[in-house]
UniProtKB/TrEMBL annotation:
One of its GO terms (biological process) is negative regulation of gene expression, epigenetic. GO terms for molecular function: enzyme activator activity; enzyme binding; zinc ion binding. This is DNA methyltransferase 3 like. Residues 37-169 form the PHD-type domain. It is found in: Nucleus. Its main location: nucleus.
Length: 382
């Protein structure tokens, strides 16, 4: 069994500003007393934060029985859907921090657990025993719901959705994650920029398989609702302003409005519970006013994702999306001035090493909780 350092290997091309503060270990003091409080003092575990041991409980932990304090709740919301380049979640599924992580070896699971949580909640020495096993399966995958003080919530997927809807400041709806046996391959509509290569490398599409899984369109001028409904249904709609070096037949904002128009055709009916995701990426072509229009039309705030080499920002994109955790990948190294200089520079110089689709690639990893994925370079190399 492999144990990973928390946060896994740092992504080489994108620096995540938030990740260092997010991985700060929870203070070990009160946590040591957690088992004592519950077992000896007979305190209800719902009245203790199972992430840090604090008694100032704000809400209930969505996955396991127990409470959660306000700071841990914020950390949990930020990190829950963050994935590393290896395809595993970056942080512990209990406390969303953790120094060293155990990874679940169920091939359909991507969860990690920190040694401290496992030793505190399941029993001292459990992490060592788990590490020695050749095939350790996590607390959400085990057939039985309880291990020591760690008790999986009944209907935890529903609890997780309710938790995100209730606690998140993000007004976008969260969809309930899908159990493995119900996951289907994702159906993608990709406009202007093609993301086939990225989705294949993440395992969402099989190389050379059913072409119906991804429909790519460069021009949508004549596309009407009937066309999109005929090609669909879709689970993910992607669009971008043209990558550098591509001929731009229209003003940049045209791509935004066309994306928005086609998105309306592709959306499931109102009230549908079907997970439906979208992403619009601007390769720094939209003006400030256009960006404001994008935020208004798409009803989501943009985040900036950068390709950084040393201190130099080599490329950056603005992303609007309802995929979980895109917000947590936000990096704010470059100022607005730097980005506008970068945008001007790029009109003159050769295309950047990483195109927009590559820059946002890891933002698609949370879709593993919703759609089937095939064996990939990521998983086969482990
Ligand atoms: Zn806490
Ligand atoms: Zn933990
Ligand atoms: Zn698992």
């Amino acid at each position: 069994l492999a144990a990973l350092p928390a946060g896994g290997p740092a992504p080489t091309d994108v620096i995540l500003v938030g990740s260092s503060e997010l991985s700060a270990p929870a203070s070990p003091g009160p946590r040591r007393d957690l088992a004592y409080e519950v077992k000896v003092n007979q305190r209800d575990i719902e009245d203790v934060c199972i992430c840090c041991g604090s008694l100032r409980v704000h809400t209930q932990h969505p996955l396991f029985e127990g409470g959660m304090c306000a700071p841990c709740k914020d950390k949990f919301l930020d990190c829950l859907f963050l994935y590393d380049d290896d395809g595993y979640q970056s942080y512990c599924s209990i406390c969303c921090a953790g120094e060293t992580l155990l990874i679940c070896e169920n091939p359909d699971c991507t969860r990690c657990y920190c040694f401290e949580c496992v030793d505190t909640l399941v029993g001292p020495g459990t992490s060592g025993k788990a590490q020695a096993l050749s095939n350790w399966v996590c607390f959400l995958c085990l057939p039985f719901p309880r291990s020591g003080l760690l008790q999986r919530r009944r209907k935890w997927r529903g609890c997780l959705k309710a938790f995100c809807d209730r606690e998140s400041e993000n007004p976008l709806e969260t969809y309930k994650t899908v159990p493995v046996w119900k996951r289907e391959p994702v159906r993608v509509l990709s406009l202007f920029g093609d993301i086939r290569r990225e989705l294949v490398s993440l395992g969402f599409l099989e190389n050379g398989s059913a072409p119906g899984r991804l429909k790519h369109l460069d021009d949508v001028t004549d596309v009407v609702r009937r066309d999109v409904e005929g090609w669909g249904p879709f689970d993910l709609v992607y669009g971008s302003t043209p990558p550098i070096g591509h001929a731009c037949d229209h003003p940049p904002v045209w791509y935004l409005f066309q994306f928005h128009r086609i998105l309306q055709y592709a959306r499931p009916r109102p009230g549908s519970r079907q997970p439906f995701f979208w992403m619009f990426v601007d390769n720094l072509l939209l003006s400030q006013d256009d960006q404001t229009a994008a935020t208004r039309f798409l009803e989501a705030d943009p985040v900036t994702i950068q390709d950084v080499c040393g201190r130099a920002v080599r490329n950056a994109v603005h992303v609007w999306s309802n995929i979980p955790a895109v917000r947590s990948r936000h990096s704010a190294l470059a100022s607005c001035e730097e980005l506008s200089l970068l945008a001007q520079d790029r009109q003159r110089t050769k295309p950047p090493a990483q195109g927009p689709a590559q820059l946002v690639k890891n933002c698609f990893l949370p879709l593993r909780e919703y759609f089937k994925y095939f064996s990939t370079e990521l998983t086969s190399s482990l």
